Amino acid sequence: xxxxxxxxxxxxxxxxxxxxxxxxxxxxxxxxxxxxxxxxxxxxxxxxxxxxxxxxxxxxxxxxxxxxxxxxxxxxxxxxxxxxxxxxxxxxxxxxxxxxxxxxxxxxxxxxxxxxxxxxxxxxxxxxxxxxxxxxxxxxxxxxxxxxxxxxxxxxxxxxxxxxxxxxxxxxxxxxxxxxxxxxxxxxxxxxxxxxxxx
Length: 199
Description:
Arc Repressor Mutant, subunit A, mainly alpha, elongated, Rna Polymerase Sigma Factor, Chain: A, single chain, about 200 residues
C-alpha cells in the first residue's frame, strides 16, 4: 500500500530535510487561511493565525500520530487558535464593524451594478456565517466551503462524522433563515436591473 504524500513529506522533515515542510505549507496555506478568515472575519488576523498554525504544527510534528490525516490535525490546530482568538476578542468586546466599513470604502468606485450586488451578497453571506454558533460555523466552513469529507472534519473537531453531518445541516438551515430576506432582495434587485432599458 502506497503511503500518502503528506506522510512521506513528514518523514522527510523529521529526518532533517526541513525544506520539505514548505511543500506542506504550500499545499494547505490557502485552505488554512480561508478557514481562519471565515471563523474570525478579519483578514489580517486570519493570516497571522494561519502562520501561527503552521509554526505550531512544525514544532509539534514529532508528536504527530501518522494514523491521523495531516490536514485534519492542521485544521484542529487552526480551529483551536481561532477559538482562543474569539474568546480573547469577546473579553475585550472589540467590534469589527469599522473594519467592514473600511473594506467597503476602499473598494473600487466604478464597479458594475451586478458586481456591487454580488459583493453585497458575498458580504451578507460572510456576516451570516460569522453569526453561526462556533460549532456549527466550523462544520459549515469545513464541509461547504472547504469541501472536506465528514471523516476529516470529525477528526479535526473531535466528534463523530454523524455529529458533523447534523451540525452542517443545522448550519445550512440557520443560514437559510438568516439570509432569506437578503436573498429575496438580491434577486429582486438583479431582476429589476436586467429589465431596465439599456442606454
